[in-house]
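Section: protein folds

Sequence with per-residue tokens
===
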Amino acid sequence: MMSPTVHARRCLLYVMNENAQEALTDAFEAQVVSPEWPTALYLKAALLVQARHGPMHRKLLNTRCTKHIQVQDTKPIKKRT
């Protein structure tokens, strides 16, 4: 099984080279490998919004961002030693 990071990085390369369909495929693959990984969720939602698949995907992106921020706010801050 490939790391979700590999899919995410390759997805960004496809975006930079204007290969939207390949980028979207890798974003979906990253989410399959790691369903709760926020980066995969952001990539997928952002690409769907960019591809203009409707307001439903904008709502998904906003929901995921809000969920991630709430999770980050509840994590205790680790002190460096």
Q: What stands out?
A: Helices lie at 4-16, 20-33, 38-50, 55-74.
